[in-house]
Write a structure and sequence with these properties.
The complex is a heterodimer.
Chain A: H1 2-8, H2 11-48, H3 64-74, H4 85-102, H5 120-141, H6 145-176, H7 181-186, H8 198-211, H9 223-226, H10 236-261, H11 274-295, H12 301-330
Helix pairs in contact in A: 2-10, 2-11, 4-5, 4-10, 5-6, 6-8, 6-12, 8-10, 8-12, 10-11
Chain B: H1 2-21, H2 25-45, H3 49-74, H4 78-87, H5 94-114, H6 124-131, H7 136-157
Helix pairs in contact in B: 1-2, 2-3
Classes of the chains: A mainly alpha, B mainly alpha.
């Protein structure tokens, strides 16, 4: 009996099992981390705005999240009678899963990561592109004016910002000579790409915030003018999926920025510090995004479009041209 | 890899059927998105990951978004569903079915001889070298066509100066 069990654990099976365990650990860390960021954001916003934020449930309010979860699970999950049921149900699932799937290509440490794909960064762009369906379908299926306006805004915004998001990372890809995110991290041993690719970093960060629908690019859900935009008709767990999906977007975009421009897991110190470096860098960008929400006003819609097409797109193309010229001049074909 | 190919191909065929017989325009477009993703999967299983991921980014992520965008703006209601039902009368099937059958027979005759799937992986570098090597003229022509389209779109979208 025991021998049969041991024989079943051949080296291949063990490798597969270890890979699966790693995947599950990464998945749980991302989802639970995203949920915890909701609480961190509320406290930090309170701090920066001169108020307390949620500080009643448990010491410093750390159990606020658990209380909110319990509330969300026991709320009635109401589907209004006038909605298009199929798309109304698909939308929150897409919202939560699209950007979560994008995390699979991110190398967390030298030995941890879900998939090592040769087209890694393109996979992230594809998932970011599919993520827009969540907002559009939610907006359309809700059959209400505010939701539809939110959906239409979101479609135009995402298409605009995806165009130069793709071009802005191409400088990094050209310098590395690979779409593979692991190769990109290893190519930053000497200098992080944030220095030679500063324009690319700026434009990619702007596009990333826009793709995650975070303030100041949260016009699809601008509460002053659109109620809650595309989420207006949602309640209970489905609304919760949109909510957690937004924070998963924040984490994934921060992780991609860290991987592409800030050296991923690289940092001084022994090797076991690698995951800590990665998490610390990701948290830095998450906090920066929260600070942006606290500090910046929301632009008008035409200003948002002008910024995308007239400022960021030419900047990214210039950046790519200059990078190409540099590579040709130095003759370093990677 | 063969199992992946056949499942993805089956999903593509079923989803495309859904596009043709779907009565609700948005549901039909969603089926088309699924079909495009399945075709991307077919590319992956045939050893062309770059083509597959471009299919996802360009078709499913950008072009179909614009399609859905337009359908949302049109705000089609119950009348369209009724109209679609009317158009899908049994007689409407005959001619397209006949044409597809001719194509299918030809395909079945020709395909077994030329099928050499997944022999090698075509990566981004090879695609780039081919595009900017033997096909550079076509790439340039396409870029000019796109430029013309862009100028036209700008002209149509331009606001006339008001006196």
């Amino acid at each position: 009996m025991w021998n049969a069990v041991v024989a079943w654990f051949t080296p291949e099976v063990v490798t597969v099992l270890i890979a699966m365990i790693k995947t599950v650990v990464i998945l749980l860390t991302v989802v639970i981390g995203s949920a915890i960021i909701i609480f961190i954001e509320r406290r930090l916003l309170g701090l920066w705005q001169g108020r307390y934020g949620p500080n009643r449930v448990g010491p410093q309010g750390i159990f606020q999240l658990a209380a909110d979860m319990v509330k969300m699970f026991f709320k009635e999950d109401w589907t209004p009678p006038f909605v298009d049921k199929l798309t109304f149900w698909i939308a929150p699932m897409v919202a939560m899963s699209a950007l979560l799937l994008a995390f699979v290509v991110i190398p967390v440490t030298p030995s941890w990561g879900v998939i090592d794909m040769n087209i890694g960064i393109l996979f992230f762009l594809a998932m970011a592109g599919l993520g827009v369906y969540a907002v559009m379908l939610a907006g359309w299926s809700s059959n209400s004016k505010y939701a539809l306006l939110g959906g239409v805004r979101s479609a135009a915004q995402t298409v605009t910002y995806e165009v130069f998001m793709g071009i802005s990372v191409m400088g990094v890809v050209a310098l590395t000579g690979s779409f593979n995110l692991r190769d990109i991290v290893l190519a930053q041993q000497d200098t992080w790409y944030v220095i030679p690719q500063f324009l690319g970093f700026l434009t990619f960060a702007i596009a990333g915030v826009a793709v995650a629908h975070r303030a100041p690019f949260d016009l699809p859900e601008a509460e002053q003018e659109l109620a809650a935009g595309y989420q207006t008709e949602y309640s209970g767990l489905k609304w919760g999926m949109f909510y957690v999906g937004e924070y998963i977007g924040v984490v994934v975009v921060s992780a991609i920025i860290v991987t592409l421009f800030c050296g991923g897991w690289l940092g001084p110190g022994p090797e076991w510090l690698a995951p800590l470096w990665f998490v610390a860098k990701v948290m830095l960008f998450v906090v920066l995004m929260i600070l942006m929400r606290a500090a910046m006003p929301r632009p008008r819609y035409d200003q948002l479009m002008d910024l995308g097409w007239k400022v960021c797109l030419p900047l990214t193309v210039l950046n790519l041209l200059a990078t190409g010229a540099y590579i040709l001049y130095t003759g370093s074909t990677p | 890899m063969e199992i992946a190919f056949y499942t993805a191909a089956a999903v593509a065929v079923i989803a495309t059927l859904g596009v043709v017989i779907g009565k609700n325009p948005v549901h039909a477009l969603l089926c088309l998105v699924v079909s495009l993703l399945a075709v991307a999967m077919v590319f992956f299983s045939l050893g062309a990951p770059f083509a597959g991921i471009l299919e996802m980014i360009v078709y499913a992520g950008a072009i179909m978004v614009l399609f859905v965008f337009v359908v949302m703006m049109l705000n089609l209601g119950e009348e369209t569903v009724a109209q679609e039902k009317q158009w899908l009368k049994p007689g409407a099937w005959a001619m397209p079915a006949l044409l597809s059958a001719v194509l299918l027979v030809q395909w079945l005759l020709v395909l077994p001889e030329s099928a050499a799937a997944g022999a090698q992986t075509v990566d981004a570098r090879q695609v780039g070298i081919t595009l900017y090597g033997p096909y550079v003229l076509i790439v340039e022509l396409v870029s000019m066509l796109l430029l013309a389209a862009m100028v036209t779109a700008w002209h149509i979208g331009r606001r006339e100066p008001t006196e």
